[in-house]
C-alpha cells in the first residue's frame, strides 16, 4: 500500500481519473502511482509512458490479468 508522511501536502480527490482500470501496455494520462487492482503491486510512472506489460509481475493461477489503477497523481504547476 502506498505510504506518505505529511498529510498537509496531499489532497483527497474524487477525480474520475481514479476510477478507471487500465490494461498493461496502455499509455498513461497522468504521472503518478498506479496499483494493480488484482494483487496490490504498485509502480510509479510518468505521463505518456506505457504501463508495464502482462509479465511485469506474476499472478497466482485464477487471479486473472493485471489491471492498473491510478491511486496518486502528480499535479504540475503552470
Ligand atoms: Zn497484480
Secondary structure layout:
Layout: E1 21-22, E2 32-36, E3 42-45, E4 68-73
Antiparallel strand pairs: 1-4, 2-3, 2-4
The chain binds zinc ion (ZN).
Zinc ion binds at residues 36, 38-39, 41, 57, 59, 66.
Structural class: mainly beta
**Strand order across the biggest sheet?**
1-4-2-3
H-E order: EEEE
User: How large a portion of the residues is in β-strands, by DSSP E?
Assistant: 15-25%
Query: What is the C-alpha radius of gyration, as a whole number of Å?
Result: 13 Å
Number of helices: 0
What level of helicity do the residues show?
under 10%
Query: How is the biggest beta sheet arranged?
Result: 4 strands, antiparallel
Report low-confidence residues grouped into runs of 5 or more. Answer: none
How many β-strand stretches?
Answer: 4
Shape: globular
Bound ligands, named by name, code or SMILES: zinc ion
What do the pLDDT scores average to? 97
User: How many angstroms does the end-to-end distance come to?
Assistant: 30 Å
Would you mind describing this structure in some detail?
The protein is mainly beta. The protein is 0% helix and 22% strand. A 4-stranded antiparallel beta sheet has the order 1-4-2-3, with no helix packed on it. 8% of the residues are buried. The model has no long low-confidence stretch (mean pLDDT 97). Zinc ion binds next to loops. The site of zinc ion has 7 residues, from loops.
Structural features:
about 80 residues, mainly beta, four-stranded antiparallel sheet, about 0% helix, globular, binds zinc ion
